[in-house]
Amino acid sequence: MKKILRFNLRLVLVLLSLFAVFNPMKAAADKEVAKTIYVGNYFTANPWSDLNLSGYVCVSTNCNTTNTSAIMINESSRTTTTYYKGDITDPHYGYYARYNITGLIPGTYEVYVTIYATISWLTGNTYYGSSQYTVLYHVTVLPTPIVTSITIPNMLELSTGNTYTFSPVIAESGASTTLTWTSTKPSVVAITSDGQITALSPGQSTIMCSAANGVTAQCLVTVTATQVNSVQLNSSELELHVGDHFKLTATVLPDNATNKALEWSSSNENVALVEGDGTIRATGTGYCSITARSTDGSNKMTSCNIHVVSTSSLPLNGDVNADGNISIVDVTALIDYLLSGNSSSNTPNVKTYNVNGLSFTMVDVEGGTFTMGATPEQEDEARDNEKPAHQVTLSSYSIGQTEVTQALWLAVMGSNPSEFTGNLQNPVEMVSWDDCQEFITQLNALTGLSFRLPTEAEWEYAARGGNKSQGNKYAGSSIIGEIAWYIDNSENTTHPVATKSPNELGLYDMSGNVFEWCQDWYSEYSDTAQNNPTGPTTGTHKIQRGGSFKHNSDLSRVSRRSYNKPSYIAKHIGLRLVL
Questions:
Q1: What's the CATH fold of domain 230-340?
Q2: pLDDT in tens, 250-293
Q3: Measured between alpha carbons, how far is 109 from 114 in angstroms, rounded to an integer?
Q4: Where are the beta strands (DSSP E) in 348-389?
Q5: Alpha carbons 184 and 280: distance in angstroms, whole number
Q6: What angle do helix axes 406-413 and 433-447 make, rounded to 10 degrees?
Q7: How far apart are CA 139 and CA 151, in angstroms?
Q8: Under CATH, what is the fold of the domain 146-224?
Q9: Cis peptide preceding 254, ω within 30 of 0
């Protein structure tokens, strides 16, 4: 009897288990979960995770819905489990499944997922029953969102290398939707799947933004070349011996400039030649400037001042070549050495000074007597205030080889007032006479020296070439284009100092580029001979000399006089130092 009862009890448990497995829904759910999807979309139901049944053994899983025409159920994956009936020699295999629930018709529906599971099916040789667990998913199916319009900029202009990310404004009935981005010319403008564009090369490309229902927006992107804004050299001044070679390295900025090609030139090829890669070959004694200029139309440039001297002994770079012969370069240097008599009498005596890590050069000017004012070579261009011509005697002094550069002003003052920035070798401008006094005061405090502005007489004597003067109309030549940046060749901008030929003393830009303030108050000339004149003790206007990039050749003559109030500021006025 006991065996019959035990058998019947086991049969009842099995029948109850089978009913639990195949019963599609329970009256009450163990867990309820809300889900929202759009028509055609699905979510994955993972009841095992939702019920947190870790540690249980699963026999089977079943999924049903109240509306099979509105909800589609597909098993996405299943995990196999092992359980035992009766004893460990009787293994059985169950599973729990995951389901993709797809919405077909808008509305709200119920989806039941039932799991038949237990903690243990076996204790000794005794079989135990399992329990039924149910998750009720409340599924809301929304209509597919319909995009009615997309708004992005109609036009954009970018420079090569730049990026831009679109932020489209989408009008739709429903939530956000996936957009597709394309470029009609990917070689001009590349675009990512999230709407970020990169300008690759000059040209135009249309960017298309499309929704799944065919609504589109477009933007015409124009890509312009990124122009060079600065050219920098690894050296701003060099002293070489005849026959030496040195390679200048140029850095072109910005890094994404479209055309980084440079044009190299020498202001005096009798002193130094330069090749297309920046390699300098010193050919003769003297001074010159090597200039690297951008070729993309931005006209950015920088220069290196070169001083070439004779060797102190027979100038053989390597004495002899491997074959026992003197090289061509050595022969050239030797000829130069012999012709010059190993003398530096024609080479200006240049001294270099340093302030806050920046070096600048001054040229010694031997004192002497000269005729100041309207001398014959000035012809009928001489103005009344250049007359009468008169004798002036000056003591020796030193004068800046170049105009004060933006780099020097920045090193001393910590700021750059100039309008034509982009190349620190350009002369500083937008400085008044009063500003120049503050600059000189600070420079003297930093160096412990006594720099000042030149007197008008010192300026004209140096511009004429001092005691080496050849009687030129302009500073170094009677052909202004050789030595000056002025209105006909400057393109209405300043240029790096020392990019034209120097005068007889090795001074650059005494004519053109920018006017230079002098120390004197303005006054009329007299015919009385003078020694070291400094002008009147008072006045209303200060002298400025030399002409500029924005004026005609007349103002660049060595005797031409101009003046302005000490507070006057302009983009064509700078300064030169005297010591």
A1: Immunoglobulin-like (2.60.40)
A2: 999 988 888 889 999 887 788 899 999 999 999 988 878 788 88
A3: 17
A4: 350-355, 358-365, 368-372
A5: 47
A6: 70
A7: 33
A8: Immunoglobulin-like (2.60.40)
A9: yes
